[in-house]
Amino acid sequence: MELSVQVDNMKDKIVEALDDLKAQNILALDVRGLTSISDYMVIASGTSDRHIRSIASKVVEELKKAGHQPLGVEGENEGEWVLVDFGDVIVHLMLPQAREFYKLESLWDIDSQEEREQSQ
Description:
single chain, Beta Polymerase, domain 2, globular, alpha+beta, 5 helices
């Protein structure tokens, strides 16, 4: 199977798992043209730090079943923002307040960047 198809399948599996786990405001951004560290950034919100930790744990569990080992998991102790790094897909799970504060979508979404530049 071609690598890009495998990466797309992994991203789809992550989004599906997030949806099954009742994550909110799920957004998958294609960042291939913006960075070499990853192909996709998946951002989702949880209702509490406990919910975010639970989502992260289940996403790791589901992806391991599909043969994808995470390279790392950061922020599990606090739960305000948990990052799960699968290499080609990086998952950011955040409390709504943290998501609003850091605005990752606007950092990695090229369409938003182009709109901002045009409005200036």
